[in-house]
Amino acid sequence: MRIRKLTAGLFAAAALSTGAVVATAAPALATPTNCSWAKYTATSIVAVCHGGTGQYRARITCRHYYGAAGDYYYTNGYGSWKSASSGQASYAYCPASGETFSSGGLDLV
Fold first, then answer.
1. Could you say which residues form the signal peptide (predicted)?
2. Is the pLDDT confidence value at 36 over 70?
């Protein structure tokens, strides 16, 4: 009889711990929608979203030439976070003097 109670207790504990794991599932991801970005100047971009949930920001990749051989390196700049349905513009700028636009995009959360 004692073994049955012990076994029943173990099954109950397993069921409770499994239920706790299921209850802690991750929340759905936010998704901004109707988003676009464009080159704004030679050293900046602008990004905007008009719907969905979550947040977005502009992201620019800039190229900097140096040396006589025409070598270059890349850096990133980021705009401020905006609410997805706000319709507010996020501007990203090249972080250093002498850098120019190479590519752009958005970060979404």
1. 1-25
2. yes
